[in-house]
Amino acid sequence: MPGTNLIVPVVLWGKHAPTHCVSSVYLSRDQKTLVTGCYDGQICIWQVDPESLKMTPRCLLVGHTAPVTCLSRASIIQDNNFIVSSSEAGEMCTWDLVDGKCRESVKLSQIHTNIQAYHMCNSEDLRLFCNGYYAEILIMDPFSLEILFSLSSKMNPDWISALHVLRPSSRKDDVVLAISITGTVKVWSLLGHENKQSEPIYENESKQIRCLNALSLNCCAYNQRTVLIVCAKYCQIYDAGDFSVLCSIQAPSGERWMSGDFLAPDRVLVCSTEGKGYLYKLPANSVPDHKGFHGPTVDHDSPVLFGILGHPDNKLLSCPPAMRFVITSAGGKQRRLLLRGDSAGVVSVWSVDDAAVPTANQMLTHAPIVVTSLDIAWAEMNPSPVGILDQLNHPEEQEIKLTASIYLLAANRLVVGREDGSIVIVNATHTYNCSYCTETTSS
């Protein structure tokens, strides 16, 4: 704005929605806000109706220069309106979801591939447990984005590929269970008074298992006796006591596993790179409450596929989607959902509760209960959104795409380059009004 030091960014999208190839997805516990990060570094905030789960895009946040790899909540308070994001460039941001402002940002040398928000003992708020392309586990404050302390490895130090933080029912301390890319399982015990001045914190236990490049690790919340570790070609159930393999599930032909979680002591959900969720019932030797737990494996004693969460059209994706299993609560009712954001910018939601109960001698495929995208939201707008240079487009002529732009502050002019080689110069505050003249040159 001429004559002031204030510059107000204004974006006019036009008739076409921006591309949004989803790389990460997050749903708040109260089911009111969905957040999707994309490979372009942008973050989209969606307003959600908790009852119908209808989603409306509300805000686009621009602050990352690389794909957004992780999205996490920032507070134990359910309606707290802050999230934390991280990117492949080591950037971390804390966002206010009400006004879209970035409240804090840092640039780290470490690149996170996973962030778990966890409420530690003796802590007033959440802590972020981060792992990625580095050998430690970093514990960070979600609001200051300060590294509070780190967990190191004495035995076989290597990148940590997956972790899970939990509080055993019979103990008052917190336990961090993790696995390195070379297949070393490690256990740390935390008492809650760890800080930057603490001595190096090394693992209490360490064991090598035959499991390379794990993608996710989850301890069963219902009994804390079994652990699900997911790799690309297979996922396995382990006994948490001695880390012996109880059963294994091979990835479907032409697909790779991405992540997984327990739905019950005897049921798991495993997600694939094709954007599907596979529901399995575990054999007796993998269920702690069963008398056959940890017993010898027989030929017929193997996981049984009883359901698939997928799209009926089975459309091929140009890259693996972002998938996340979430447990939410609205109106005092708990709900389990599977979220998917894909390369076309489509967000899909499945009700896991509707599909989690096996049907005798049947394998059912379940369609998503909600499907939406920016393109769908744009198509539903009436009137259509206003573009920067809509006044130059003749209704009967093919639209010319914009490829570059720059704002000249001193002249208050917007200069726009188009794919046909032309350059358009317009008054920046009147770009949408056809009564103002424009200057057009050819490159």
UniProtKB/TrEMBL annotation:
Identify the domain of life: Eukaryota
Entry keywords, A to Z: Phosphoprotein, Repeat, WD repeat
Against InterPro entries, the record matches this protein to: WD40/YVTN_repeat-like_dom_sf, WD40_repeat_dom_sf, WD40_rpt, WDR72-like
Q: Which SUPFAM superfamilies does the record match to this protein?
A: WD40 repeat-like (SSF50978)
Per its UniProt record, what Pfam families does this chain match? WD40 (PF00400)
Matching entries from Gene3D superfamilies are given as:
YVTN repeat-like/Quinoprotein amine dehydrogenase
Listed PROSITE patterns? WD_REPEATS_2 (PS50082)
As recorded in UniProt, coiled-coil segments are none
Q: Does the keyword Phosphoprotein apply?
A: yes
A GO cellular-component term linked to this record: cytoplasm
Q: Is-annotated flag, keyword Cell wall biogenesis/degradation?
A: no
- WD repeat residue intervals: 22-56
PANTHER family for this protein: RABCONNECTIN-3B, ISOFORM A
Q: What is this protein called?
A: Uncharacterized protein
* Organism annotation: Chrysodeixis includens (Soybean looper)
